[in-house]
Structures are given as structure tokens and as C-alpha cells.
């Protein structure tokens, strides 16, 4: 909570902080390992968000990305009518090091299905996070700037 208060003290708007957090979370669980830093950087630049804030959230949410990765791939394989995903997370990491191209070929269709699922759920999750945090951060902003006057 202290880093968020520091951002508010620096004059970053509550809305920008809430959006940075919301997008850091939803982009941070994007179902393609190794892509979230680029996605968060691009979104921060595009929307004029605080880059360190969105990247911090992305970093902190990484365990959730790993937890959701295989379930999203399995669901993605079902909706994309692909072969069932039977690989473990450990095998994914091993293949990243030994046979990245083979891993990409094996999971390509399931990944596309997982991205389709993410595209449906991400805006809902981002909106829920944003509209929960923005009023709380506005209240904190008013409290900080009221006491410093």
C-alpha cells in the first residue's frame, strides 16, 4: 500500500494508478509465457500509465499466471477443437529450454483458444478491478492532499 500512496503523493491520478493495477493484473495473466512484460510496457506507453507501477503488478501477479496457464490452455484446446493439453508446467519449462519451437507447434492451437478465452474475461476482470480500486484511491488521494495543505 505504501508504494501506491507514494504514487498519489507524486501527483499521479487515482484513475491512472487504478488502471495501471487493473491492466497489470489482466495483462500479467495473459496465457503466453514471456509476453507480459512487453504487453504491459506497450499499454503503459499507449495509455500514458506509470510504467514502474504496471510492471510491479505484472511481476507480483506472475504466480497467478503460472496457476492459470495450464487451465487456460486446456480450456483453449477444447474451444479450439485442438488435441487435449496433457503437458505439465514442468514439462513446459523444460521444453522452453530444450525445444521451444516444438513447444510452440504443440501448443499453438490451444494457445489461440486460451487467448480467445482471455480476451473475453480480461475486460471484465480489468473493469472490476478498476471500478473497485478507483474510488478507494480517490479517497486516499483526498486524504493525503487534505492533510498536506
State the gist of this model.
The protein has 149 residues and is an all-alpha fold. The chain has helices at 2-9, 14-28, 36-47, 51-79, 89-98, 100-147. α2 (14-28) packs antiparallel against α3 and α2 runs parallel beside α4 (51-79).
What features would you describe in this structure?
With 149 residues, this protein is mainly alpha-helical. The chain has one domain (2-142). It is 82% helix and 0% strand. The protein contains 6 helices and no strands. The chain has helices spanning 2-9, 14-28, 36-47, 51-79, 89-98, 100-147. Helix 2 runs parallel beside helix 4, helix 2 packs antiparallel against helix 6 and helix 4 crosses helix 6. The longest helix is centred in the C-terminal third of the chain and has 48 residues, at 100-147. The chain is elongated.
**Form type:** elongated
> How many strands?
0
Topology pattern, helix = H, strand = E: HHHHHH
Helix % is: over 70%
**Helix segment count?**
6
State the low-pLDDT regions, or none: none
Please name the defining characteristics of this protein.
149 residues, 6 helices
Amino acid at each position: 500500500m505504501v508504494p501506491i500512496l507514494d504514487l498519489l503523493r507524486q501527483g499521479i491520478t487515482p484513475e491512472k494508478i487504478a488502471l495501471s493495477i487493473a491492466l497489470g493484473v489482466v495483462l500479467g495473466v495473459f496465457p503466453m509465457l514471456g509476453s507480459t512484460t512487453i504487453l504491459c510496457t506497450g499499454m503503459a506507453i499507449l495509455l500514458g500509465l506509470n510504467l514502474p507501477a504496471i510492471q510491479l503488478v505484472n511481476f507480483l501477479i506472475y504466480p497467478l499466471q503460472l496457476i492459470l496457464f495450464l487451465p487456460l490452455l486446456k480450456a483453449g484446446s477444447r474451444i479450439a477443437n485442438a488435441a487435449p493439453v496433457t503437458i505439465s508446467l514442468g514439462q513446459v519449462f523444460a521444453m522452453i529450454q530444450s525445444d521451444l519451437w516444438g513447444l510452440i507447434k504443440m501448443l499453438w492451437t490451444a494457445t489461440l483458444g486460451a487467448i480467445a478465452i482471455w480476451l473475453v474475461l480480461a475486460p471484465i476482470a480489468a473493469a472490476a478491478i478498476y471500478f473497485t480500486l478507483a474510488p478507494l484511491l480517490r479517497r486516499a488521494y483526498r486524504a493525503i492532499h487534505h492533510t498536506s495543505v
